[in-house]
Amino acid sequence: MKNLVRAGTNPVSAAPAALVGGSGVFLEYADGSRILDASNTGGPLGHAHPAMVEAITTAASFPVVNEGQPWREREAAADELVDIAFAGDDDWVGGVRFGLSGSEVNDIALTLAQAVTGRSPVVARERAYHGLVGLSRDVTVQPQWHGGLSFVDGSVRIPQRGVEVRTIAGPDGTVYSTRGADRIETLTEPALAAALAGSAAVIIDYTQGGRYYDPSYQDRVAAAAREAGSLWIADEVVTGFGRSGSWFAFQGAESRPDLVTLGKPLAGGASPAGAVVLSKDVLEVLREAKWQNYSTFRAHPIMIHAVRAHLRVVRDEGLVERAAVLGERLGRMLVELAERHPSVTRVAGKGLHWTVELRGDDWRSWLANTGERQLTDHVAAEARAHGVAISTSDEATSLFIAPPLIVSDSELEQIVVALDAGLTVADRLLDAAVSA
Fold first, then answer.
1. pLDDT single digits (tens) 252-311
2. Phi, psi angle pair for 150, to nearest 5°
3. Range 19-48+319-435: architecture per CATH
4. Distance between CA 20 and CA 273 in Å, rounded?
5. Exposure string (b/e) for 142-171, b if CB count within 10 Å is 16 or more?
6. CA nearest neighbour of 204 among 218, 191, 193
7. What is the pTM of this model?
8. 51-316: what CATH class?
9. What is the model's pLDDT at position 2?
């Protein structure tokens, strides 16, 4: 690496093996190794899926058209998104606006909410991550994802927020925890009402920081937002398109959002992509206004073809239903692991997105401002030695498991075996620390 600047907490001490390809759920490296990709929310169909390769190849022959030019394929993609992904649940959908990424569309949705309501403050739930662009960075309240600089000497430079952000307690989603393990605070009605008073919007996601979907929580937030005159934004950038075991996480409750944001898996991992889905009520406001929000490459032909191909694969191969079945199985296996490994304090998740939390520092003070290897780094390294890539989300104590939706039963077992090996290392390191 000579000129590429890598995003990350601290300087890279050693160059990783060169990534040269991928097929199915596996990544392929120059040294001949094949690693099972077990933490990739942006690649729901794995790598080089034939339908996605064909879509991208076909799209390369289309002209580059910006948002100002009408294009039938873009309109068809919006229709197909609603007809397939929101089938049977589309009575509240008013329209679709495409974007470039989850971070961007979260910023777009929050900006629109400010314009619609005429208010400025926004509300996020504890431990949220919504991106690192504009207002999406403002509402990212996981402490280490501040968008600034964390130095190895322990110092931190955090950019100031551009808007007032109020934080409410979040959902939980725990299926296993040890006595004394960190549990999120309960959301009280007075606290919820106070946070929403005079706010433009409340934005809620359902995986970040290991906090998962809760239907009663969603309905309470939605009702309080309506009472306060705020818009409710469902961030489905991670959970959408089957990841949570349903097309969208919010569908598990009665309430429906004012805005839904989509990203990561939207184009099947074959292209960057994002979208904002507007409710009929929000769209009605826009009928009497010009929405002054443009971009050159939103809904680029490559993205549009990838979106349409992805939607059809998920529908035709029954991947949403499969994610629900595999998710129940994976959850049981992870709880069994947790019961055997004292290094684990908590397991939470839904569908094919799970978090395993380890003993260690409180997340509230974690700024990733150290060059030392963390417990999660050791677990990930051992899992990789067993042929599986597991992500640490740049946290000292949190691992997440999110394989492609096409993962097989045997590949799911391989992930659990590798994690078992990693947690054995964590147990040994913690025992050594206690004995020292």
1. 999 999 999 999 999 999 999 999 999 999 999 998 898 888 888 888 999 999 999 999
2. -115, 115
3. Alpha-Beta Complex (3.90)
4. 23
5. bbbbbeeebeeeeeeeeeebeeebbebbbb
6. 218
7. 0.94
8. alpha beta
9. 65
